[in-house]
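Each record in this resource describes a single protein on a pair of labelled lines. An example record follows, reproduced without changes.
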Amino acid sequence: MALVGRGVGILTAPLKLIGKLKPRRAADILVVSGVAAAALVTWRYGPANDWAMSALAYGWAPVALWITAAGFTLRVRPGNLARYWRWWGIAAGAAAVTLGLLSLIHPQFGLLSEVSLGGRWGSVLGGSPLGTAILKIAAIAVGTPLLFFPRPVSVHYIRALKRAAAGLSAAWSRLQPAAIQGVRLLFQGMRHLSPARLLGRWLGGKAGAADTAYDVLAQHLDGSGPVAPWRARSDPRPGRRSARTGGDDPDAGRNG
């Protein structure tokens, strides 16, 4: 009985200590203990761990950081949440961009190979295809500051666009002569690449081989060239040759 009483005393000691504290301190301890217990259960319990990894995976890091900062500010300086709500919104946008970037990384093995480092929820902000994911992430990164600080951010965006346009114009003015010269050289090179020269290169690059092969090919196409040997052999009358080969017809005298 003494051991049982001592064990109960050890278990109830934290509760007695909490009871002696102020209500706010006691609430803090209970909240921290509850969060730690939930994290421990999620880490050790299989189904909960699988759900957490498939839902956000490594995306829990930015999300937990934002929630922890917001909870700590709410506990210590609650007025700062309302005073700096725009900055809290930008921080949430940064966490969303981080989730989108993590969703672009797919491991080759394990549970995360089926989702991504950002989990299923991160795939909503990024995911695949890659072009659409980059557009969504860029829209969040550009639109979040514009949403919370529309006036100053729009001014900075317009200045940045003007500078970018001026830089592109200056670069084009410097590269334009070289580009035009390159196009001219390309067209001049294409003019010299005739079919005969290409065929000569294919035949071995011998002098005159291109023109000869090109003429033979043209004669066969228009029907004025010599008959191939296999065509002459396929004639049903063995003594008869075509007029194209220059031979005499043995039946010509009979008909004459």
User: Anything to note?
Assistant: Confidence is low (pLDDT under 50) at residues 237-256. Residues 178 and 184 are 10 Å apart (CA to CA). Residues 45-162 form one domain. The chain is about 75% helix and 0% strand.
